């Protein structure tokens, strides 16, 4: 609120105050989401409905 009152632009508010405070949560969330997606894709392939294996010529 003080930065906005002193005339800081929305761009500066986002990159100076909001982004650094949310960066930790974004990193932690992505660290749990990416492996989960990989395991899910491996599970689908294991039960036979995932991405088919490439055909070698």
Automatic annotation (TrEMBL):
Keywords: Cell membrane, Ion transport, Membrane, Nickel, Nickel transport, Peptide transport, Protein transport, Transmembrane, Transmembrane helix, Transport. The chain crosses the membrane at residues 21-49. Coiled coil: none annotated. Residues 1-57 form the ABC transmembrane type-1 domain. GO terms for biological process: nickel cation transport; peptide transport; protein transport; transmembrane transport. PROSITE patterns: ABC_TM1. It is found in: Cell membrane. It is a multi-pass membrane protein. The keyword Iron does not apply. It holds the Pfam family BPD_transp_1. GO terms for cellular component: plasma membrane. It comes from the Bacteria. The keyword Phosphoprotein does not apply. Belongs to the binding-protein-dependent transport system permease family. OppBC subfamily. This is Oligopeptide transport system permease protein oppC.
């Amino acid at each position: 609120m003080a930065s906005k009152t002193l005339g800081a632009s929305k761009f500066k508010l986002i990159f100076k105050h909001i982004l650094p405070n949310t960066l930790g949560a974004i990193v932690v969330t992505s660290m749990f989401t990416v492996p989960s997606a990989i395991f899910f894709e491996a599970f689908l392939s294991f039960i036979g409905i995932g991405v088919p294996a490439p055909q070698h010529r």
